[in-house]
Model the fold of this input.
Amino acid sequence: MGGERSRRWLVLSCLVALLVLGALLALAWGSVNIPWQKIPTILFDPLTEHTSWRTILLRLRLPRLLLGLLVGGALGMAGGVFQGLLRNPMADPYLVGISAGAGFGAVMAMLFGWNFTILGLGSLPFLAFSGALATVFVVYRLARVGGKVPVTSFLLAGVAIGFLLNALMSLMMVGMGRDLHRVFYWLMGTFSGRGWNELNLLLPYFTLGFLLILWQLRNLNLLVLGEEAALHLGVNVERTKVILITGASLLTASAVAVSGLIGFVGLIVPHIMRLLIGPDHRFLVPFCGLGGGVFLMWGDTLARSLFPPLEIPVGIITALAGGPFFLYLLRRHQGRYFGQGG
Amino acid sequence: MALYRVENISFAYQEEWVLRNVDLEIEEGDFVGILGPNGSGKSTLLKVMSGLLQPQEGRVSLENREIHRIPPGERARQIGVVPQETYLDFPFMLEEVVAMGRYPHLGWWGTLRYRDMEYVEEALATTGLLELRNRTIHQLSGGERQRGIIARALAQNPRVLLLDEPVSNLDIKYQQGIFELLLQLNRREGLTIILVSHDLNLASQYCKNLILLDRGRLKALGPAEEVLTSENIKQVYQVEVEVEKWSPLGKPRINLRPPDLEEGGQKGIIPRRIHVVGGGGSSWRLLKRLRSAGHELSLGAVNEGDTDSEGARELNIKCVREIPFHHISDEKLNQTLEMMVEADLVVIAEVPFGRGNIGNLRMALAALQKGKKVFVLDGENIANRDFTGGDAVKLWEEMKKHGARTVTPRELEQILKEGEEDGQKEKN
Done:
């Protein structure tokens, strides 16, 4: 156990170092390069002489950096929770119909050109967010048998509803013509043009979802043993599942609403973290949050500074960088991960 | 007051009743085995008792509290469950898995205190897993993993331990190991143990009480001697068995009887009528062997309550019985002689002869004189078993003159197989 603990400290230190370094790079790099030594003074001194740099930092780069952290964190944690909850290593936050629901809502907003504001939300994020949550709710109700929600039927109902919504979404896209590339960009996921508004939108749901998950982390650890075992060890299984699904769905839906469907973070970050610190979900899920945040922050920095002024959708970067790194870890840690047989 | 009370429960997964009107009580400190064929509802009964399933009718209570009304956390401090399936998807270390048994005793974050670690240590030590504590669950063998899950249940520090076929996938060494472990826990810690088992003999050997289920209904309940009778087993499992009531372990032992023996014997053996002279347990093995070879048997005369007399009763063998501790009367001796004459041959086991049963030898001599074949197991050493002051030896000498043969059990088998003794070849 001591080994586990020191390992966690080591991983935590590395993540924090990557966070600080990445944050500095994200603030410094871009179409205008700002010397990193000056960044603290510019940020904390309102009377600085570099007013245009200060504007760039405060209005553009800082909110975007924070957004990347939160979205990555949300996806990472939701992925960790869903993988544990569904006891399926292929699970990610989008598996249970969230992506399809959000995509469906977003494409509707774009197709019909709706433009309204509800509770300070634009039409697109609002429809994406509510589409995602409504889908999870429907899936949950469909999977419910006699007061219980078996994870298998939850998973299957999610996949089925997902296919249905994706088909409808494709149907709508056929009729879109000019706007198709917008949809395409949105589906790949991007932070381009996002700022404080989106951050404000995200924060309350992020906080609520995070607290719900944190509350049930210990029970998630037991659910991983199987629902019967969890029950025998004193877990109120159905209640725990509802709370965890609600929390993870809130995190995912709010992340999707502000940044589109950024893939791979929710699938791969939990795996990487499990390889690094083991499967104790009380630590694993928060580490997924931190790891996902750092990962996506770096990804976004690369996305907007590799080919300036062109911005690549950050989902492409996460896939390109995450895939090979994951394979590398997998081959190195096969023993621990798959047991002796490998 | 009974610790566990199962009151007239019925349970159905869908339409068909899996359990029907099961009613029983289990005392604190008991060691109970639930037996029954596949699909008889054993595991379901265990799941109902653990609170995992709720019966449609009746109620299950632990110390007068209905099991479903007990909140999960509190229930987990009372009942530890070892499920049949012990596979785990995630690579937890053994120690982590065992420590999870402490969860019902812990706070919100699940921080283990020193006391909790002591429980984990003890559970690991009891199950002999201390050295494997840092292995992941995937690196353990089936038996080690099974013991790990038992250790987890022990770390819960429960009053009752429920186990669903805890040894089903293990070799006999681990089977014994786990049952011995359970026996110790039951004896030393007073832990109440209820387990489902497929192995009648293991259950008979270790459990204090047995529950026999037949298609969802309670067939029998009580100590092994009462539950594991050949009639019960035939009715419930539809197989013919022989029950040894006094196996060396002092518990009933079930032996399967191959079905072809029911149809009249093994190949190469001509079924015959054989009369056996036994007593004091001397003929028990012989009777069983001859019976499984398909012969029709009779025994006598012996005293009522004698080991062989009970054995004959168990095997359903005709037997002449005298009142306990009496010399065998002339009336019984005449009956014995009649049986000898009706039989194809007479076998005399290695019986000690005293005043009470020396009459049997006289009858055997009479049968010889009427032309019966008589075989005496280890006849040459009859003097060692003669407690009559030489009468048995004299009778033996006389019998030899009339053609009685001394044989070893092996020779007897050979003779019976080849039909070597006179008269039999022609007859068949």
Observations:
- Chain B touches chain A at residues 50-52, 71-77, 79-81, 83, 85, 88-93, 95-97, 100-101, 103-104, 106, 108-110, 134, 136, 138-139, 153, 156 (CB under 8 Å).
- Chain B has two domains: 4-250, 259-427.
- The first helix of chain B runs from residue 42 to 50.
- Residues 379 and 406 of chain B are 5 Å apart (CA to CA).
